[in-house]
Design brief:
The protein is about 15% helix and about 30% strand. It is α+β, with helices and mostly antiparallel strands. It has a single domain, classed as 2-Layer Sandwich (Alpha-Beta Plaits), CATH 3.30.70. A hairpin with a 4-residue loop joins strand 2 and strand 3. The chain binds iron/sulfur cluster.
Length: about 90
């Protein structure tokens, strides 16, 4: 478990811009004034509008908290090793 890596995912098209993720985990999430939705900081932008970022074990809990705070469940975390969806 020591070096588990995860992919943090944001289904941005479905984000309602409530701000919860940026309040819970401001190291990873920021509100975007231009579209009133959140962004993962330093993420990869996918063609379908989703955002992705690789995170490490130490960053897991904060982002899981952010995902659990999202009222429309558009934040997901997937284990890199086997694509297991955690949330
Ligand atoms: S908590 Fe969810 S809906 Fe709210 S800004 Fe973050 S990703 Fe968007």
């Amino acid at each position: 478990m020591a070096d588990e890596k995860y992919t943090l995912q944001h289904n941005k098209p479905e984000c309602i811009g409530c701000g919860a993720c940026a309040a819970v985990a401001p190291e990873f999430w920021v509100m975007n004034d231009s579209d009133n939705k959140s962004d993962i900081i330093d993420c990869k932008n996918l063609e379908n509008g989703w955002e992705e970022k690789e995170i490490e074990e130490k960053d897991f809990v904060k982002n899981k908290d952010a995902a659990e705070s999202c009222p429309v469940n558009v934040i997901h975390i997937v284990k890199k090793e086997n694509n297991e969806k955690i949330i």
